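The instructor's notes for this session suggest beginning with a concrete chain rather than abstract definitions. Hand out the sequence below and ask the class to guess, before any prediction is shown, which regions might be ordered.
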Amino acid sequence: MGTAPAVTVNPASAAPPTPALLVIDMQNTLVAIAHRASATVAAVAGLQARARAAGAPVVFAQQQDEELEPGTDGWRIVPELAPVAGDTVVPKAAPDSFLGTELDAVLRARGVTEVVVTGFATEICVESTARQALSRGYDVVLVADGHTTSVRPAASGRYAAPEESVAHHNEIYRNLRFPGRRVRVLPAAEVGFGRGTPS
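After discussion, reveal the predicted structure:
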C-alpha cells in the first residue's frame, strides 16, 4: 500500500498567500446552459487579466467525457476565457478537479498556497474541487460572482433555483471553518493576486 502524500498546512498566522486562479469547466456546452453566463464569464475574464498581470498562475480544469469529447466545439473553453501562453490546462473526468489529474502537482510546482476558485457548476465541480483544495492543504477563495450553475426549468424536480444555489454555497463558505486553512468568499472586484502579499 502506498503512502499518502504529505499535506502542507497553511495556518491563518502564516506568511501571506501565493494565489492561483482556478477556472473550472467554463466550456462552450456548459456555459450555454449556465445561469448568469455573461456576467460570470465577465467576472472570470477580469480575474484572468489581473492574475496574469500579477504573474499569478491561471489554471483551467477542463472536463472531458462522452458528452464533452476532446476536440469538439462544446468541449472547448469559451473564447472570452481562452487560455494564453503561460496558462495551464488540466484535463479531468470527475467533479473533483484533483482526482486523477496533475492539478495538485501543477499548483505545488508553482509554489501556490491559495486557490481562487471560479467556474461551473456551483454544487458539483466547484464545490467538489474547493473542498478537495482545503483537504490538500490550500487556502481557498470562493469568488462569489465567479461561479454559477445550470438554468433549471420549473419542473426540474427539487433542485434549488440557480440564484439560491449560488447564494447558499457562498454562505456556507463564509461560515466554513477548516482547521489550519483560511477560507474566504469575495466578489471578483476584491480579489487580488499580489505574490507574497495579502489578496
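Then share the key points. The chain is about 30% helix and 20% strand. The longest helix spans residues 37-54.
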